[in-house]
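Notes to self after the Tuesday call (sharing in case useful).
The group wants a holo model before anyone commits to mutagenesis around the pocket. I volunteered. Ligand is DOR. Logging inputs and output together so the record is complete.
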Amino acid sequence: MNPILIRGVRPYGEGEPVDVLVSDGQIAQIAASITAPDGAEVIEAAGQVLLPGFVDLHTHLREPGREDTETVETGSAAAALGGFTAVFAMANTDPVADSPVVTDHVWARGQQIGLVDVHPVGAVTVGLDGKQLTEMALMAAGSGRVRMFSDDGKCVHDPLLMRRALEYASGLGVLIAQHAEEPRLTVGAVAHEGPNAARLGLAGWPRAAEESIVARDALLARDAKARVHICHASTAGTVEILKWAKDQGISITAEVTPHHLLLDDGLLESYDGVFRVNPPLREASDVLALRAALADGVIDCVATDHAPHAAQEKCCEFSHARPGMLGLQTALSVIAEAMVETGLLDWRGVARVMSENPAAIAGLPDQGRPLEVGEPANLVVVDPDARWTVEPAELASKSANTPYRAMTLPATVTATLLRGRVTAADGAARPVAGR
Ligand code: DOR
Ligand code: ZN
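Result:
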């Protein structure tokens, strides 16, 4: 593998520019000026920011079963272009990832393609049916080494089953990630329950459907002395409950999506199915509460909930559109817009919420590491001053359901490195040659 010299970059966007030499998969040298060794690839990064590669705890890659909308290959390309070096692929595939047959396959595909580490998420219940726990230990011991389990898309709503899942996971040292949605409160719901949904005639999803499960699971985690992770927090009330639970010493962590940090339910006016998502876009006051919570650490990290869907599943009546939006390739820019340009986070803060914290939550020892000599070269170079306009057809995903179409956003990823290999540069992904 050729050495790589990143020239004139500012680690975490702080201090004077430096040259960073990467070789043998590691950061080999950081100095004011380094002469490029023979055969080195040089990345000119004057004025740019170096961060640890991003880690996404929540993505849907649709393989196996819906390869018409995304595959591990196309999703990996979107991830590398978005600056990610590790992603967690959710279990709601077809067949469901509820056995090592599926989870080992997803891991192996990711490694073959080589653009990003694709960690499979195992289902909590067989077939996501909410009735019987899966053999988590088998999936954890498989080659895919599953370390996170979730029925995402569905809530593990039976409290006794959730309690058992937390106890079992705690013994295995793995994490349960909950899609917090009390299903009896969301029957037929397609939009946030509030004045907008009422005016538009859309069936509402109350905040309490999320908050009641977050509160319940915090208590179950306390009693089981287990850890619980809350997927895609979306309401100001959830923030209050998280704050309370953390103050009690309960092991609870939470993620927020880029879209819940930037968009609100005013967009539903258009009845455009691209804005349908679970949990739904909330009100502007929730958006502000989520931003503040991410800035002050009540919410631990950003996770994309990248959810590709076919055109015919989105370009239809709003209430028939499938919930979900693309997120991998726009995540950094949306965080820059919602958190950096508003002064809520600096680039060190972005490293914390997009890399260090998610790596720690998932227990990935070689991700989210400090930018220091001897550390694994899982890196992203960001141009903080660039702006780009989102064109769905130009995204690497097989689907085009981005809610940011035609929006101009700040910050671009200029290069991503996975264990010292360039996986994306100048807007193109670079899969392993000769696969
Ligand atoms: O909007 C969503 N889409 N939320 C989920 O929980 C699942 C996801 C999907 O799989 O499309
Ligand atoms: Zn979900």
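Two things stood out.
The longest strand covers residues 41-52.
DSSP finds twelve helices and 18 strands in the chain.
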